[in-house]
């Protein structure tokens, strides 16, 4: 980080997330501190190409699934050659701020084969300028915030996130939920994150595809076709007839990916070591009901209703 970035950081509000990670409020969102400099670098240096496909989400909204699907749809390689059979989807589709710009301030991304499929958790309004301003495509996936919160809690505890910076144990579920409702969580506030991409989708639906995790669970084949059309490579009649849509859906399914050796026993490096298995926990809709009480759910429903009022977005 150069001196100007340091000075900027010192002026920003910081908090400690319930799991011990420091988060810093930058451009209206809570950026995890280790990714603050990489976010600045991506904003400064990333040059989107018209052929790029950018996958965006809040953590634990179905990013891994979307990466596997988009990669398979764009490359049509789901046979024994697919890298998804031996690599975690996060190794196949890197994040801007969690991987590429974390490791180097200005990495050379020119050699990456096209279309470049890249991911980010950065809110729409804070994306590097070249993303909204170029012809590249953005696919956003959102999820019921209560499922997303519970998913993140398991993921963070499973990987012992924040442990080295923490003096006491992680906050209890109710305190963590309070922080989440206040929007103080990784890349939060969650409603603003979704609304940013929702509005961008309404403004330019050819540029931003807006997906919901629950809809993919409901009808994956429909969404595989939708993603293919959106990125400009719809399935041909011949591909439809030989069942490619169903095959991509199967290869990228929770059960298939979860049971691959690499995802059972492998590790992934993202500012620390993460178990690949922690990206495949339950993969269900509505698991929040096993963890949050009715009062918490009511609070969340009211919050969502007030925040989304007038946007046209429903969760
Ligand atoms: P749960 O913790 O509720 O099981 P992300 O990929 O954004 O990190 O989100 C992880 C969540 O998506 C986890 O939710 C995980 O189980 C689920 N998930 C991962 N791969 C999936 C797949 N292929 N199909 C459906 N859900 C998947």
From TrEMBL:
Residues 50-312 form the Sulfotransferase domain. The keyword Transferase applies. It comes from the Eukaryota. Its EC number is 2.8.2.-. GO terms for biological process: sulfation. It is an enzyme of class 2 (transferase). One of its GO terms (cellular component) is cytoplasm. GO terms for molecular function: sulfotransferase activity. Pfam families: Sulfotransfer_1. Keywords: Transferase. Belongs to the sulfotransferase 1 family. This is Sulfotransferase.
């Amino acid at each position: 980080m150069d001196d100007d970035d340091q000075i900027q950081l010192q002026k920003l509000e910081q908090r400690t997330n319930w799991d011990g990670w420091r988060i810093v409020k930058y451009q209206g969102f809570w950026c995890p501190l280790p990714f603050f400099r990489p976010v600045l670098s991506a904003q400064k240096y990333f040059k989107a190409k018209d052929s790029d496909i950018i996958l965006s989400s809040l953590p634990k909204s179905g990013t891994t699934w979307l990466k596997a699907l988009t990669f398979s749809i764009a490359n049509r390689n789901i046979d024994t050659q697919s890298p998804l059979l031996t690599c975690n989807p996060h190794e196949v589709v890197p994040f801007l701020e969690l991987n590429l710009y974390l490791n180097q301030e200005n990495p050379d991304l020119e050699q990456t084969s096209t279309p470049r499929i890249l991911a980010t958790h950065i809110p729409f309004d804070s994306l590097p300028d070249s993303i909204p301003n170029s012809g590249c495509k953005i696919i956003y996936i959102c999820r019921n915030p209560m499922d997303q919160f519970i998913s993140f809690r398991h993921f963070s505890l499973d990987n012992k996130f924040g442990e080295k910076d923490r003096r006491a144990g992680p906050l209890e579920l109710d305190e963590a939920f309070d922080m989440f409702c206040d929007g103080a969580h990784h890349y939060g506030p969650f409603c603003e994150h979704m609304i940013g991409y929702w509005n961008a989708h309404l403004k330019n639906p050819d540029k931003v595809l807006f997906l919901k995790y629950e809809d993919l669970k409901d009808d994956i084949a429909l969404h595989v076709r939708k993603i293919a059309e959106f990125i400009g490579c719809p399935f041909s009649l011949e591909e439809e007839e030989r069942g490619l849509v169903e095959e991509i859906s199967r290869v990228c399914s929770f059960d298939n990916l979860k049971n691959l050796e690499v995802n059972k026993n492998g590790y992934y490096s993202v500012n620390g070591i993460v178990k690949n298995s922690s990206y495949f926990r339950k993969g269900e809709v509505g698991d929040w009901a096993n963890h949050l009480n009715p009062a918490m759910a009511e609070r969340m429903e009211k919050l969502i209703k007030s925040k989304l009022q007038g946007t046209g977005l429903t969760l």
